[in-house]
Write a structure and sequence with these properties.
Helix content: over 70%
Low-confidence stretches: none
Distance between the termini: 46 Å
Number of domains: 1
Order of helices and strands: HHH
Length: 95
């Protein structure tokens, strides 16, 4: 069964290669390849190098701020100050 699958895959690859070697097929293949290069550049140069670290910093900052808020609310509760409204704002779903 695996041999038949490989054979069908080879035939499909041959037909696609034949379709994409002349005329509009070649142009379409070149456009697709250019789009792939552009997407790869955007991912490597913009997302992975700039946006991903910024997003991670922002998430870490808000996690840190939430942790401080929880400590403040818990400290106020320990002292005896009513914190029901403050604590409800901290009970957000965790990431």
């Amino acid at each position: 069964m695996l041999i038949i699958g490989n054979f069908v895959e080879q035939i499909g690859s041959s037909i696609m290669e034949l379709a994409f070697t002349n005329g509009i097929g070649r142009t379409l293949k070149e456009i697709i390849m250019a789009l792939c290069v552009i997407v790869q550049w955007i991912y490597n140069s913009i997302w992975a190098a700039i946006l991903c670290p910024i997003a991670q910093f922002v998430l870490d900052y808000f996690a840190w701020a939430l942790e401080i808020w929880e400590h403040v609310v818990n400290a106020l509760r320990t002292v005896g100050i009513p914190t029901k409204e403050l604590y409800e704002s901290v009970d957000a779903p965790s990431l």
